[in-house]
């Protein structure tokens, strides 16, 4: 069973947008680093993917999907961070009601930092393929 945690490098020019220029990649990397540092042993495989070419049409995400879609039943959830590194308030979620209830329960663990909201839908160029095929998604 696989939990996919991901982000991408955003800007492909030298313009503004520093809060969203790769922030999701670093957030995703740090999430797995914290799990390791805390000595936690996940029951599922945690897979970090740092996407490429999101702004050029999601080429990296499509390639990954094409290479791994035959094992889609092994993916329990796909997550993408793509809103910058601002103060979080919760997660967007796409999936069935039972999965949403599980996510809501997990989010209660974040009450001490006031990050408990579960919004209507996840949105992410890099995880859309998976969600269209029924894999729950968070962003």
Give structural notes.
The protein is α/β, with parallel strands linked by helices. It has a domain at 2-82 and 123-138. Helices cover 29% and strands 22% of the residues. The protein is built from four helices and six strands. The chain has helices at 23-37, 59-68, 97-107, 128-132; strands spanning 2-8, 45-51, 75-81, 90-94, 117-119, 137-138. Strands 2-1-3-6-4-5 form a six-stranded mixed sheet. The chain is globular. It comes from Burhinus bistriatus. GO terms for molecular function: carboxypeptidase activity; metal ion binding; metallodipeptidase activity. It is found in: Endoplasmic reticulum; Golgi apparatus; Lysosome; Secreted.
Secondary structure blueprint with pairings:
Blueprint: E1 2-8, H1 23-37, E2 45-51, H2 59-68, E3 75-81, E4 90-94, H3 97-107, E5 117-119, H4 128-132, E6 137-138
Parallel strand pairs: 1-2, 1-3, 3-6, 4-5
Antiparallel strand pairs: 4-6
Give the helix proportion (percent range): 25-40%
Q: Which band does the percent of strand residues land in?
A: 15-25%
Count, helices: 4
Enumerate the spans where pLDDT stays under 50 for 5 or more consecutive residues. none
Number of strands: 6
> What is the approximate shape?
globular
Radius of gyration: 15 Å
Question: Order of strands across the biggest sheet?
Answer: 2-1-3-6-4-5
Average pLDDT confidence is: 88
User: Would you tell me the structural class of the helices and strands?
Assistant: alpha/beta
Note the main sheet.
Answer: 6 strands, mixed
Distance between the termini: 20 Å
Order of helices and strands: EHEHEEHEHE
């Amino acid at each position: 069973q696989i939990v996919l945690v991901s982000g991408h490098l955003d800007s492909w020019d030298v313009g503004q947008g520093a809060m969203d220029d790769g922030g999701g990649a670093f957030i995703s990397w740090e999430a797995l680093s914290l799990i390791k540092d805390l000595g936690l042993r996940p029951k599922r495989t945690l897979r970090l993917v740092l996407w490429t070419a999101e702004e050029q049409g999601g080429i990296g995400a499509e390639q990954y999907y094409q290479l791994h879609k035959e094992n889609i039943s092994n993916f329990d959830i796909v997550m993408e961070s793509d809103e910058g590194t601002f103060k979080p308030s919760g997660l967007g979620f796409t999936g069935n009601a039972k999965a949403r209830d599980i996510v809501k329960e997990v989010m209660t663990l974040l009450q001490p930092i006031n990050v408990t909201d579960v919004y209507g839908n996840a949105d992410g160029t890099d995880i859309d393929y998976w969600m269209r095929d029924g894999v729950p998604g968070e962003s």
